[in-house]
Structure formats: structure tokens, C-alpha cells
Amino acid sequence: MGVMLARNLREALKKAQNVGVVEERVQLFDDCEVVVRNLRPDEYEAIHAEIKELDGMAYLFGFQLGHVKRAIVELNGQDFRDVQFVDDEEDDPKKPGQTKMVKLELSAWLAKNILSSWGKEAVYITYRKVEDAVARAEKRAKDGIEFITPEESDEDKYRRLLGELKEAEASLPDKLVENILDEKGYMLKTTAEEAKRAMERMDAIARENAAKAAPPQPQPVQAPVPVQAQQAPAPHPVQQAPAPTTGPDLEALMRGRQPMNQMVEDVPQPVIISPMPRYAPVPAGKQSPPPENVHPSLQGAIAGPALHGSAAIRGARQAALEADADQVGALEASTGQLPPKPAEIPILERRQDPIDPKVAAAMIDRKPQGGLNPHYRAFQRPKL
User: Fold this and answer.
1) Dihedral angle of Cα 321, 325, 326, 329, to the nearest 10 degrees
2) Domains along the chain with CATH numbers
3) What's the CA gap between 90 and 101, in Å, rounded?
4) pLDDT tens-digit profile of 8-65?
């Protein structure tokens, strides 16, 4: 493979350099003449890297200044087309009172020494000429070229430009966006009265269109019906009751019924045994009348000669128990059922003598005693 010298290659391809670069000249306030060009791709990347941390008006001014300082190729007759760096002197921070030589990029030197003294109107006008150079470069690049694939349609172009505008709008302040739209005539300003009148007009038009679209349909006229021809309403059909089902004669059963309050039923009556009352001892040779509410079987025992003490009570109870046993046996033989048992009334007897309060207080209030519990037994481990 052959080898070619770079010097010869540069001379051969010299015309291929700076293809697509278009320059625009602008006169600023009769004192300054500036020539600018469109930017290269790497310069656009450098601009976005510089302003990515800015916001609001600082972003807008930094965006315009970044284009202008890189687009200037001639300023008041001074040519910068082949200049990339500028050697300049600046104060040496290590040696006060002395200067040192530094090498700065042309764009940084112009921004520091020239553009920092310009007004924002001059920067904005120069930036607009840079946009003119971009538009002229696009037009010249298309001249004399025929594409096989058609160029983007108006719809595609509108979609692309709208997306770019939305991206640029997100980075601009709202007030600035409103001013730009107002300058171009795209800012819609409507008062409340205008909006109200427009809504009323739209409602009226909608009602008119609805009335035209659906005209009223005439109702058919019905001929009057003669009175003689009118038919009487049909009577409601009478539902017949279902036939009664076969069964017993209810009337005969009603005639042969017997009221419940006239029925005689042999119900065994329970025998209530009254508790034996206590009697006071009666002196010998005297008789006392029989007490009330005493079982009949005890009347004779009590009416006889008076008994003395517990013997009389035990005798009376024994006689009552025997009489009750005879009655219970007769009732069981006749009905086959036993009478209900009477409720027994328990008699609580006091069997414990009262405790002296002084003795109880002495037992409760005595002082605690120390030492081992005499009832305690140590646990004995089993021997293995």
C-alpha cells in the first residue's frame, strides 16, 4: 500500500476545507463592523456544556453569547479566520506586581476583552446574523442537489419544529415566552366579556343547528269515535273458589264438641304436710286446745293428755309420718302417681360458742415471730 505525505494531502484537499461555512456581515452603530459565520458541530457541543448549569435570563444571554464569540471571524478589519489561540499577559498571582504570558482560546479572549463591554442589544443583533448565516448555509447546501427520497412534508416539518420549540420553551422563562408569542402574534388575549359573548353565541348557533336538523313531526289526527260505537269495558273474570277436598265433617265435629271449662277430670290432689310447730310444755293434769293449721292426723294426739318436752314432739311427728304414709299409699294405689314432695325448710342451729372479741384481737395483732416454721420439712434427695 502506498504512503502519502500529509503536506501534499493538505494542498490537494485545501478546497475541501470549510465546506458549508457561510459568512454574514453586520454594521453595529456605525462604529463596529463584524463578520460572523455559522458554527461547526463541536462548537455547538461546547456551548451546551457551558450553559447547562444556568437558568432563566442567564441561560438565554449565555446561549446567545456562546454563539457570537465563536462565530466572529472578523472585527473592524482584523481577521481571525486562521487564529485559534491568543497570547496575552495577565497578573501573576504568585508574583505580585509582575505579569506572565498565557495562551487563551480566541473565543475566550473575545468574551473577556471585547464582548463583555457590549450591550445586550448588540449581542442579540449579532446572534440574529449568526442565525441568518445558518439559514443561508442550509439553502446553499440544497441548491443544485436532487434527492431520490422526497424532502420532509409540511406535516413532518411542523412536527419536528414543534418538538424543537417545546424543548426550547422548557428552558426559557414563562414571561419571555409570553413576550415572544405576543410579538409574533400568537399570544391569545381574551377578556372575560369576550369569552362570555363567544360562549353565548356558540350556544345560540348550537340550538339553531339542532332545530334545523330535527324539524317537528306533525302528529296524526285521530277521528272521533262515536259514543254508540264505544265498547263497554270487559268485566273482570271472577275467579271461582277451588272445590273443597274430602275430609271429616266439620259441622258434626263442632256440634259434638264439649267446652273445656265443663270437663270433669279426676286430678289427684297433693297432700301438704305442714311442719310440726314447737309447743311449750304443759303442766301435768291440764289439757290445751288443739293448735290451728295442724294436720288432721295430729289433732287427736295433741287434743289428748298433754305431753311434756321432746317426748311429746317426737310422738306427734311419728303419728304424722304414719298418717302421711297411709295417705301416700292409698293415693298411689288409686292413681299410680306419687304426690309432689313438699319443700323442706332447713333449720339452722347454732352449734359453736361465740368467740370473745378480745381473744380474737390478741390472736390477730400479735407480733410476728422469727425463726423456722416448725412444720417445715427439708426435701430429701433420693439416693442413687
Assistant:
1) 170
2) 16-142 (3.30.2220), 159-206 (no CATH)
3) 7
4) 787 778 778 888 899 999 999 888 999 999 999 999 999 999 999 998 899 999 999 9
CA distance 46 to 235: 102
Residue 55 and residue 65 in contact, taking contact as beta carbons nearer than 8 Å: no
Give the tens place of pLDDT for each residue, 290-324. Answer: 555 555 544 554 444 444 456 667 777 788 777 77
Coil, strand or helix at 301 = helix
Question: Is pLDDT of 166 > 70?
Answer: yes
User: What is the reported pTM?
Assistant: 0.40
Backbone phi and psi for residue 318, each to the nearest 5 degrees, phi listed first: -65, -45
- pLDDT tens readout for residues 190-246: 667 777 888 888 889 888 888 887 666 666 656 555 555 445 555 555 555 555 556
Grid coordinates of 213: 336538523
Residue 81 CA, chain-centre distance (Å), reads: 67
**Letter for the amino acid at 90?**
E
Helices (H), the chain: 6-12, 41-51, 57-71, 106-113, 120-142, 154-170, 174-184, 192-213, 250-255, 296-303, 309-335, 357-364
Helix or strand or coil: residue 135?
helix
For every residue of 305-365, DSSP letters joined together read SPP-HHHHHHHHHHHHHHHHHHHHHHHHHHHS-PPPPPPP-------SPPPPHHHHHHHHS
